[in-house]
Each structure stands twice: as structure tokens, then as C-alpha cells.
Amino acid sequence: MIRLKHIYKSYPLGDGQVDVLHDISLHVRKKEFVSILGPSGSGKSTLMNIIGCLDVPDSGDYILDGEYVDNCTENQLSDIRSKKIGFIFQQFNLLPELTAYENVEMPLLYHKLTAAERRERVERTLEQVGLTDRMKHKPNQLSGGQQQRVAIARVLAAEPSIILADEPTGNLDSTSSAEIMGIIKELHQSGNTIVLITHDHNIADQAQRKVYVHDGVLTEREAVI
Questions:
Q1: Contact in structure between 30 and 1 (CB atoms under 8 Å)
Q2: Which of 4, 42, 75, 148 is most enclosed, with most CB atoms within 10 A?
Q3: 3-state secondary structure 27-93
Q4: Beta 162-166 vs 59-64: how paired, if at all?
Q5: Cα distances (Å, whole numbers) of residue 155 to 17, 42, 107, 162
Q6: Quick one: which of 135, 193, 22, 182 has its CA closest to 168?
Q7: Is 125 helix (H, G, I), strand (E, B) or coil?
Q8: For residue range 112-166, what is the model confidence (pLDDT) as tens digits?
């Protein structure tokens, strides 16, 4: 499903550049749950942005569902994101003035769905994450764990086949972290492909497979420092 071949990525820095990813090759199969583990600054978030079509590599090939996407236009990348990929971020990214229901519904306004179809998806996904009784609450009326569950429901409502989770438990206590990881594992068991970015070994260990990023290099074995 996801295949990266010899990916390189750098960014301008002053008069030169900083190399972020070096010769990255990765294959994630359909319905697989893979964690990408690495310290801050290792390049793992840049790698997630490329997998999620939020950024493009300097060189190398990115093949998604058999199609080369590294040379797509921004409109084409946007279309891929909206149809195939869901993002769970550390910061939740909820709109504070909207209720949980409205936060989940908002991305669906850009899909060709009737009001009844949107309502069914929103109510179903909020029930799936255990927030039926909180759908009229705004983010400041919810705990951190509840806010992350709203963010997950928002992803689920769009029905993506791939879910990218970037430090999804980074802002949560241990109890809420366990709840969120339980939901993510349920999503995997339901048939979603999951790629999870983390610096936490305990979180990474819950995936089917771990890969490691250190200084922009990806390996199947952790770097010895």
C-alpha cells in the first residue's frame, strides 16, 4: 500500500541546507500497523509529512496504492489526502468555538454528503470513541483524552483507509494514553492501515512492527548511541 524508495529530503538553512532524510526506503502493507520510533529531531515527522502527502521529497519514489505520488500537483495531493488519509496529531487541532459534533462534522462539509449522511457518520463515530454524551460540549469542556477522541472521531467520519498518528498520546496522562492506544488498536483490527510516529518505546511496542529513525536514517534496528 505505502512504498517509499530511496527518499531524500533537505531544507534551506542560511546559505546552505540541512539534510533531514537520507535514502529512506519503507514498505507498509495494507492493514498493517507500523510504528516509526525516533527521538526529537530525528526526521520522523518529516517522514510522516511525506507519507501523508503534506510534503514532497527532493528525490526518490513514493508509491501509494500502486500510483506514483511524488510528482503530483498540490491539487492532486489534496485530493489524495481527503480521500485516503486521516491524521491524528498531538495537539488535537480542534476549533474551540465548535462543539464536538461540529468539529467532527466540519470536514464532511467538503464531501458530497447529505445532511442525513453527515449526521449518521458524526453520531456513529462519536459513539465509536465513547463520546455520545459529550457531543454538544466544546473542547474547553473536555479533558485532553476526550479532545483526542473527538479528533479521532473526526478522522473516522471521513472513512480513510490510512491513518497517520503523530505522537497521538504526547499530551496525555497514562490513563488517557492507554485509552487512545486502545482505540487505535481497534481501528487497526477493523481494517485500517496505521502508521504511528512516536518517541515512546512503550507506545511503539504496541504496533505489529517497529522501524527506527535516527539522524534521518531509517532502519529495522534501533541505533546504538
A1: yes
A2: 148
A3: EECCCCEEEEECCCCCCHHHHHHHHCCCCCCCEEEEEECCEECCCCCHHHHHHHHHHHEEEEECCCC
A4: unpaired
A5: 35, 26, 9, 10
A6: 182
A7: helix
A8: 899 999 999 999 999 999 999 999 999 999 999 999 999 999 999 999 999 999 9
**In the predicted model, is pLDDT for residue 224 greater than 90?**
no
User: What is the residue-wise DSSP string for 176-224?
Assistant: HHHHHHHHHHHHHHTT-EEEEEES-HHHHTTSSEEEEEETTEEESSPPP
Please state, in angstroms and rounded to a whole number, the distance separating the CA atoms of residues 136 and 141: 10
Say what percent of the chain tops pLDDT 90: 84
Residue 202 backbone dihedrals phi, psi, to 5 degrees:
-65, -35
What pLDDT does 223 receive?
A: 61
Distances (CA, A) of 179 to 46, 138, 154, 170, 182: 27, 20, 17, 13, 5
Beta strand 33-37 with 209-214: parallel, antiparallel or unpaired? parallel
Which residues does 76 contact at the CB level (< 8 Å), separation at least 6? 69
Q: Report d(CA 156, CA 140) in Å as an integer.
A: 22
Please give the model's pTM, rounded to 2 decimal places: 0.91
With contact defined as beta carbons under 8 Å apart, do 2 and 70 qualify? Answer: no
Residue-level length of the chain? 225
